[in-house]
User: Fold this.
Amino acid sequence: MNVSFYERIANAGDDESLRDIFNSLNFSDGYGIIDRLKESDDAKDRIIKYVVYCYSYQSPMLKSKDVTENKKKILHKVGLSGSKVSELIIKNQDENINYFIRWWLEVNEDTDWALYSSGMDFVADQLLFVREGLHITYTGDDPKKAASFIKNVKKDSDLKAKAWFNADKAIERLKEIKKALDIRHEFLEGVVRKDVPEFFEGTINWAERQAKKNREKQYNESRKKDSNTALQKG
Assistant:
């Protein structure tokens, strides 16, 4: 995962343009995907933040095992809850946004995470279909129409049963992928705590933390030296 890229976007201020940030990081091709949307620049930035929060391992907003619930919370956080595009986002029905999600997963170069997050979307879609009611109704006493209705009900029930089976089967595999991801990221977090920079080369936040640590160390050593000098004079 490109840690610095994630943090730069996730922590961008409301007064910052994500278009400018993407361009400065040489990711203008990624922003170009979202730029196809017939939305304001403000809405485009909110959609990008939604994707970043929803499709990044580091995101603190993926606590629920219910993917749809996570999506709704993130949409609320980025200010898209209740918007026209929010329903399309929840159901993965906007082609450009889906394309940007794929781009985001690819640019972060984590195949396991891409498999896991895409798989969770698949499971959510399958279960949503299972929970949906029939899109056809029948009232009346025409035997032919009644027979056709019953046939469609059976067909729909069979499809829902297959969708549930597909979701159940996928969940088992996704558990294995998630376990491997957690183990790997736990190791990487341990590396950060030990301050080994080569694993995160180019990460601005690591450099800033390291610089702050060095400044505090120098300040403390200076105070200790001044204190020792004062004691000697006393």
Remarks:
- The two ends are 56 Å apart (CA to CA).
